[in-house]
Amino acid sequence: MINLSNTTTEMVIALLIDGDNVQSVYIDAIEKELAILGNTTHKRLYYTSNTGISNGWGTVCNAHALNLRHVLPYTDSKNSNVKNVADSALIIDAMDILYSGHVNCICIVASDSDYTNIAKRLRESNVRVLGMGEKKTPAPFVNACDEFKYLEDLRDKYATEIKGKKTEQSDEETTIPSKEEIENFITNLLNNAGKPLDAGTIKQRICQMWKNFNEENYGATKMIKFFNTRKFKIIQESGGNVNIDLLNR
């Protein structure tokens, strides 16, 4: 198991999404928040259907590299009110991931109190539980997590406007984020850290979120030239390291 007593240990995250319970419109904000917190090594979407993926997930799975966990319904699939059985598959996988010892944080994305007990069980094994769900999420699940983030708030936090319109990325698109979007991401990263961060660490987190990131696409010959000095402080260390902080801190 990963030793959590070492506060410098990188957060290694398993992302488990109940696709029957959560809309796909939140995936971009979910990924940005997790990229700020650490390295997401597992990305799984669970859904119950034999007629297609619900809640818009079918159009974004490949673009966001989600591994699908499809569970067939145990009752008549023609019934639109068929019981969601994907939650049991998510819970079993969470326990398997726990015993693998490869992660120190499991992020469960759902607005469902059915995940209350698994959250408590994971915490008993010293694995951090980060919950994400809509504001309708019942209090037992919220309180069972180490930390709970509301999806509506995350979507507002990371909303990006392009010509006045919010856009969603589909499987067929490979997009290069705007510099404003990346700068907003860096601002949130520094706010979360509460201190200056090494420029290399910031680039690593950017690349975790956008695999195709290259500072040269923004007219910067090297990473240090990417940072907008009207928003960020560039701190040259005596040993040659370069730290970045918020200009207004």
Quick structural overview:
By secondary structure, the chain is an alpha/beta fold. The chain has helices at residues 27-37, 86-100, 116-124, 139-144, 151-157, 179-193, 199-209, and strands at residues 12-18, 39-48, 67-71, 105-109, 128-133, 147-150, 161-162, 165-166, 197-198, 232-236, 242-246. A six-stranded parallel β-sheet has the order 3-2-1-4-5-6, sandwiched between helices. Strands 9-11-10 form a three-stranded antiparallel β-sheet. A two-stranded antiparallel ribbon has the order 7-8.
Describe this structure in words.
The chain has helices at residues 27-37, 86-100, 116-124, 139-144, 151-157, 179-193, 199-209; strands spanning 12-18, 39-48, 67-71, 105-109, 128-133, 147-150, 161-162, 165-166, 197-198, 232-236, 242-246. The protein is an alpha/beta fold. The strands form 3 sheets. The protein has a 6-stranded parallel β-sheet with strand order 3-2-1-4-5-6, with helices on both faces. The protein has a 3-stranded antiparallel β-sheet with strand order 9-11-10. Strands 7-8 form a two-stranded antiparallel ribbon. Helix 1 (27-37) links the parallel strand 1 (12-18) and strand 2. Helix 1 (27-37) packs across helix 5 (151-157) and helix 1 (27-37) packs antiparallel against helix 7. The longest helix is centred in the middle third of the chain and has 15 residues, at 86-100. It is globular, with a radius of gyration of 19 Å. The chain starts with 11 loop residues before the first strand and ends with a strand.
